[in-house]
Amino acid sequence: MLTKRIIACLDMDGGRVVKGVQFVNLRDAGDPAECAAAHARDGADEIVLLDITATSGKRNTMLDVVSCTARCLFVPFTVGGGIRELSDAEAVFDAGADKIAINSAAVTDPTLIGKIAARFGSQAVVVAIDARRVKAGSGGFEVFVAGGRTPTGRDAIQWAREAADCGAGEILLTSMDRDGTKAGFDCELTQLVADAVSIPVIASGGAGSPQHFIDVFRDGRADAALAASIFHFGLENIGQLKRELQAANVTVRWPC
Amino acid sequence: MSMQSGGATIAIVDYGAGNLNSVKKAFDYLGAKIVVTPQPETVAAADKIVLPGVGHFSALSGLDNKGLRDAVLEGASAGKPFLGICLGMQWLFEGSDEAPEFAGAGFFKGRCQPFPSSVKSPHVGWNSLALRQSSRLLRNVAPESFVYYTHSFQAPVVAATAASTEYGTQFSAVVEQENIFGVQFHPEQSWTVGLLILKNFCEL
């Protein structure tokens, strides 16, 4: 049976992991290759590397990081952050990524999705969507870009459908309301998107306990869940999270 | 992981359908002697052949466009160990409904079909292998091991199916017949299980 995926995310700034996990026995907790390898050993089903570097001048650093990280990593490896055009995506794939994630660039030009998919296959294109609840009027969820800060006036569910139609392989859906709060994923948002598209949906933003993962898989109907700070839940490692999920009858890849 | 296959050269066929880097990386890690090539002569000179591939079934037309089809077929028919990965495995069948105009190699009977509408497509993620018969490619692979899939079309279960996976239907995860091997999943993205399978291929 297809398992629910636990995806470990590394946020990178200037080639270093930031706001991440405190591993024991790592020579360098800021080194992305070491962190990625440690997560994979612990049982992460996939690794995502997100470059949140503000200045674009550090792109070459990022490509070096991708190469080093990919070299000994044999689980799916997705890289996102600052990919604006096909040539950016080509460079990232060349460096060793299995998939790329695009966000603002896809909202600006949805044809970019199809261009990358035509060259590398839809399975290699993840469209990341940052969304916030609309407080006024009829509610709903609005798409934000530029690191989740700039409103677009677009409906998140509709954009997810359009991205899927344009050739996206997966949707990486982040609730900006929940991100960093450890109050749980936004299951309502996740379920609306999961029901709207036939491609996999990865839930992101708000993970704070194993119960949150159980909820987003069951109520949110997510196919995968992403988190950066697994250890902050008082869990020892991803294996412990997966054992708790199994105890709650969520099908996961464990042991692995 | 150490290698015992001596100097056997493995040609990874480059016909323009992506994901070569991941496959090359895995064989490099295993210490195999590999050459990534679009040249029919180089494929013909190699001891073993790997046919990767992601994306649309029609991308396999790159084999014809680059004059590679004959070299690949001859190598496989001559008894060289041959491993098809993802699209590369689907090519071993008669064809795929994804691109009806393009013929597969026909080593195995049947066509690749979409998944039933009862499940989401594509099939993406880790799913388990139900081992059906003894297999050289799957030597030491534990029953129900998880491997990583990402595909929209699936090959039917046939007599040569060494392992199957369940997703809306039972489909061929691994086919194996004499020197011809195919895996629907991506061993290069399937952690230690995947590396073990590739190592077994190297040591044939």
Can you offer a commentary on this structure?
The complex is a heterodimer of chains A (256) and B (204). With 256 residues, chain A is an alpha/beta fold. Chain A has one domain: TIM Barrel (Alpha-Beta Barrel), CATH 3.20.20.70. Helices cover 34% and strands 23% of the residues of chain A. An 8-stranded parallel beta barrel of chain A has the order 1-3-4-5-6-9-10-11, surrounded by 7 helices. In chain A, helix 8 crosses helix 9. Chain A is globular. The two termini of chain A are 15 Å apart. The mean pLDDT of chain A is 91. The relative contact order of chain B is 0.17. Chain B starts with 8 loop residues before the first strand and ends with a helix. Chain B has one domain: Class I glutamine amidotransferase (GATase) domain (Rossmann fold). With 204 residues, chain B is of the alpha/beta class. The longest helix of chain B is centred in the C-terminal third of the chain and has 12 residues. Chain B is 23% helix and 28% strand. Chains A and B meet through loops of A and helix 1, strand 7, strand 9 and helix 6 of B.
